[in-house]
């Protein structure tokens, strides 16, 4: 009987390990394929059958990408837009989350439901209305339009996550700060806000990734102004410096370049991210 259970346990472990390997390959292979494609010369990219390892490693695709002024300008625009969106989302979102999580007033639940519902609409469904609004406000063709519209999907998520964190903090901390003479604002930014650092890092990083990877709004609101386009739009407009046909190698090189910063940020803040994703769900 014991041997039967031991055999089932080993079989389960083997199956679980095989599943982990399959998921790992499934998630990592696209990045690996982009990397080896970026390192291949043009003749290897067009040969059939395709090879899983480059026969000749070259950096000409990366060199061509870094010589592309439109790509570099898009990289800068993406960085500026993403950083400002994160700062505004965390600044406004932390105040709103503190009010919804710590203050007592009627209608809090419905306000949270409304905030959550704003994240349920697909981007394409609100694009016509946003286009009219951006055009009437005179922001069309500028990165200001991107900063404003990106907050539509980053700010509600930030408020929702941070609210659960502020709500989970012990009320005794706030009461002790008020007894010691702190004002409500001092209690917020000196006592409670530092305790939500894991949530701030998690929501900030996810907001940064969402703004960095966004394409639909960036294409629509900067279509006639190339100088305001972000890197996701710039990549789609590659005409090819090395290749005479579709610059597949340069596109893959550019994809690797814009992905690396996100990987580095996730690796740096991975502990904070885990704390941010789990601590708010546990009370006490």
What does this protein look like?
With 284 residues, this protein is mostly helical. The protein has two domains: 3-44; 68-236, MetI-like (MetI-like fold). It contains 14 helices and no strands. The protein has helices at residues 2-39, 42-45, 60-66, 69-102, 108-117, 123-136, 143-168, 171-179, 184-195, 197-213, 216-221, 231-236, 248-268, 270-278. Helix 1 (2-39) crosses helix 13 and helix 3 (60-66) packs across helix 13 (248-268). It is globular and about 75 Å long.
Short account of what is shown:
This protein has 284 residues and is mostly helical.
CATH class of the largest domain: Mainly Alpha
Number of domains: 2
CATH superfamily of the largest domain: MetI-like
Unreliable residue stretches: none
Mean pLDDT over the full residue set: 84
CATH architecture of the largest domain: Orthogonal Bundle
Number of strands: 0
How can the largest sheet be summarized?
A: none
CATH topology of the largest domain: MetI-like fold
Rg result: 24 Å
What is the H-and-E element order?
Answer: HHHHHHHHHHHHHH
Beta strand %: under 5%
Distance between the termini: 43 Å
Helix share, percent:
over 70%
Q: Could you say which overall geometry the principal axes of the C-alpha atoms support?
A: globular
**Number of separate helices:** 14
Sheet/helix structural class? mainly alpha
Jot down its keywords:
284 residues, transmembrane helix, single chain, mainly alpha, transmembrane
Q: Which helices and strands, and how do they pair?
A:
Blueprint (H helix, E strand, L loop, with lengths): L1 H38 L2 H4 L14 H7 L2 H34 L5 H10 L5 H14 L6 H26 L2 H9 L4 H12 L1 H17 L2 H6 L9 H6 L11 H21 L1 H9 L6
């Amino acid at each position: 009987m014991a041997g039967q259970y031991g055999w089932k346990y080993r079989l389960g472990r083997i199956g679980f390990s095989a599943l982990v390997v399959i998921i790992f390959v499934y998630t990592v292979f696209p990045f690996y394929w982009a990397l080896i494609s970026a390192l291949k010369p043009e003749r290897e990219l067009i040969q059939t059958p395709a090879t899983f390892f480059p026969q000749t490693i070259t950096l000409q695709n990366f060199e061509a990408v870094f010589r592309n002024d439109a790509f570099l300008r898009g990289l800068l625009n993406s960085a500026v837009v993403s950083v400002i969106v994160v700062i505004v989302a965390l600044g406004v979102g932390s105040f709103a989350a503190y009010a919804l999580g710590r203050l007592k007033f009627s209608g809090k639940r419905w306000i949270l439901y409304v905030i959550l519902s704003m994240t349920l609409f697909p981007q394409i469904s609100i694009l016509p209305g946003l286009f009219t609004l951006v055009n009437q406000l005179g922001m069309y063709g500028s990165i200001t339009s991107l900063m404003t519209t990106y907050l539509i999907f980053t700010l509600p998520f930030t408020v929702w996550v941070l609210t659960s964190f502020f709500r989970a903090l012990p009320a005794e901390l706030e009461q002790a700060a008020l007894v010691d003479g702190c004002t409500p604002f001092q209690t917020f930014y000196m006592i409670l806000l530092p305790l939500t650092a894991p949530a701030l890092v998690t929501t900030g990083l996810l907001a940064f990734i969402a703004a960095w990877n966004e394409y639909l709004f960036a294409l629509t609101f900067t279509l006639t102004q190339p100088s305001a386009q972000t890197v996701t739009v710039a990549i789609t407009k590659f005409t090819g410096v090395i290749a005479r046909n579709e610059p597949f190698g340069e596109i893959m090189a550019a994809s690797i370049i814009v992905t690396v910063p996100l990987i580095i940020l996730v690796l740096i803040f991975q502990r904070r991210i885990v704390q941010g994703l789990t601590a708010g769900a546990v009370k006490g």
